[in-house]
Write a sequence for this structure.
């Protein structure tokens, strides 16, 4: 089946630094990818929709200047958490829309900001 | 505001018995519902879905029931197997089709443990 690769799987960083998370569709082209995050004991929440070759669309309450999304190719979307703070510590996961509208998820990235 | 709720954080079932996972939603605009299964250190994988025009969809051991009037759906697994032990998420979408399909609202998940 379709595979979405996400890395790193976990990252620890100091407050104020930036962290980049990559999401790749390995065996299909994805014009649209989605970024979710999940805080402890909460559900996955959609952050933004990443569109190849155009600007991402962000959900209400998500700061576009803090969470930079780049979808420069049909197989790669990146999420950069800029100037990370402890409250950004969360589980981030991407998904890509494959054929028939099915979604395929990456394995997620656990971000811990000290 | 939690639009999709899975009120049972965990469920424990004996192998061979039926597992029933429940999900409630509040947004009447939702018209497509999905169940995902997630193993540790892996991303969620699609399990089964149902459109709001149906009240039941079956795929092998997995059946999803939708009660629109109650805004409730459930996933039945029968017979349950130890390999079914995972976290199960229900998710909902409004205006299914196209890229709106990816704008899913998830429940918090239910940890299913199937004992041998």
């Amino acid at each position: 089946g379709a595979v979405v690769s996400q890395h790193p799987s976990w990252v620890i960083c100091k407050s104020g630094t930036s962290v980049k998370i990559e999401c790749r569709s390995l065996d299909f082209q994805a014009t649209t990818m989605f970024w979710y995050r999940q805080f402890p004991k909460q559900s996955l929440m959609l952050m933004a929709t990443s569109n190849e070759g155009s600007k991402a669309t962000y959900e209400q309450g998500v700061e576009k200047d803090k969470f930079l999304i780049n979808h420069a190719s049909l197989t790669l979307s990146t999420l950069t958490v800029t100037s990370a703070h402890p409250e950004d510590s969360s589980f981030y996961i991407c998904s890509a829309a494959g054929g028939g509208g099915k979604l395929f998820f990456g394995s997620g990235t656990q971000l811990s900001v000290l | 505001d939690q639009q999709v709720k899975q009120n049972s954080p965990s469920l424990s079932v004996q192998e061979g018995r039926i597992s029933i996972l429940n999900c409630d939603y509040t947004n009447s605009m939702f018209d497509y519902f999905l169940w995902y299964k997630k193993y540790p250190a892996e991303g969620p994988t699609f399990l089964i879905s149902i459109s709001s025009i149906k009240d039941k969809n079956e795929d092998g051991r997995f059946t999803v029931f939708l009660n629109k009037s109650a805004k409730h759906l459930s996933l039945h697994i029968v017979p349950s197997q130890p390999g079914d032990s995972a976290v199960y998420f229900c998710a909902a979408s409004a205006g299914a089709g196209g890229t709106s399909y990816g704008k899913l609202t998830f429940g918090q998940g239910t940890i299913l443990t199937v004992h041998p």
